């Protein structure tokens, strides 16, 4: 009887222990289930971040490339913004020489100012025929002129040129713009303009530019005129001077027997 009671007591104790364990587990606090991360929540639209330029603490300003101003590029940009047609046109020759201009200082060249052989505009053109090895068609501004040409206003020389019956080679002649630091008109033997650092005076003071350096990349066909614009700021070998007083075309008989010039003008910046 005692052993039965003892066994029964043990069974009851085991059941009671199981009940206590189950009650204890049911008393733990519950938590709300969390949603799993999705692709949308990871790769959604993010605010734009703009990078800010920074310098390394060991670098110096010398290591940063700096833009170099280019006088020719600036000049061309200015002209492009202004427009060539907005520049002031000062005629030198249109069927006749303009007042104040002369060709009397041309050298060894037979000149006809009223040629009708080949004309680009108007009724006449200038016909020039070189006589010797070196010949020039020289336009000069006389002392009688009523209009002075300040270099800082003169932008370009523009003209039309043709070889007439024959083709005109791209290296057949050169063009030079002449100026002065003293006189606003052409004066013979004017030495007011000097080239800094020159040791001798044997060479020309003003650069002589061939057609091939003015955009003419092949010979000009017979009976054809082309327009040439000589931008003064692109004549990088020219010295600094105050006034434009003339210009010339230099050639030789072996290079061309005849050439024609028409509609010659200077292009000036408008007055401020």
Compose a concise summary of this entry.
The chain is of the alpha+beta class. It has helices spanning 2-26, 39-42, 71-82, and strands at residues 88-93, 101-102, 109-115, 125-130, 135-141, 154-162, 173-180, 209-210, 226-231, 243-251, 259-268. The protein contains three helices and eleven strands; from the N terminus they run αααβββββββββββ.
Describe this protein's structure.
This protein is an alpha+beta fold and 272 residues long. It has a domain at 75-194 and 204-268: Jelly Rolls (Sandwich), CATH 2.60.120. 15% of the residues lie in helices and 26% in strands. The strands form two sheets. Strands 1, 3, 4, 6, 9 and 11 form a six-stranded antiparallel β-sheet that branches. It has a five-stranded antiparallel β-sheet with strand order 2-5-10-7-8, with no helix packed on it. It is globular and about 40 Å long. The chain starts with a helix and ends with a strand.
């Amino acid at each position: 009887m005692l052993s039965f009671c003892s066994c029964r007591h043990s069974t009851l104790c085991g059941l009671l222990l199981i009940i206590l364990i189950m009650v204890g587990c049911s008393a733990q606090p519950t938590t709300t289930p969390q949603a799993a991360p999705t692709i949308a929540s990871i790769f959604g639209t993010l605010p734009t971040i703009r990078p800010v330029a920074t310098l390394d603490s060991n670098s110096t300003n010398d290591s940063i490339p700096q833009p170099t101003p280019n006088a020719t590029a600036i000049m061309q940009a200015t002209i492009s913004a202004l427009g060539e047609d907005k520049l002031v046109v000062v005629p030198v020759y249109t069927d006749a020489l303009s007042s104040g201009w002369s060709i009397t200082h041309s050298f060894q060249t037979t000149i006809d100012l009223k040629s009708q052989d080949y004309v680009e505009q108007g009724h006449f053109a200038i016909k020039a025929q070189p006589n010797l090895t070196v010949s020039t068609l020289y336009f000069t501004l006389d002392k009688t002129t009523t209009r002075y040409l300040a270099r800082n206003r003169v932008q370009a020389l523009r003209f039309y040129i043709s070889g007439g019956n024959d083709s005109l080679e791209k290296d057949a002649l050169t063009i030079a713009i002449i100026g002065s630091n003293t006189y606003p008109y052409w004066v013979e033997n004017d030495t007011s303009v000097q080239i800094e650092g020159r040791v001798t005076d044997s060479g020309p003071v003003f650069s002589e530019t061939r057609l091939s350096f003015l955009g003419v990349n092949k010979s000009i066909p017979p009976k054809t005129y082309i327009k040439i614009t000589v931008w003064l700021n692109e004549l990088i070998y020219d010295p600094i001077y105050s006034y434009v007083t003339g210009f010339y075309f230099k050639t030789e008989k072996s290079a061309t027997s005849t050439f024609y010039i028409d509609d010659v003008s200077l292009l000036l910046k408008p007055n401020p």
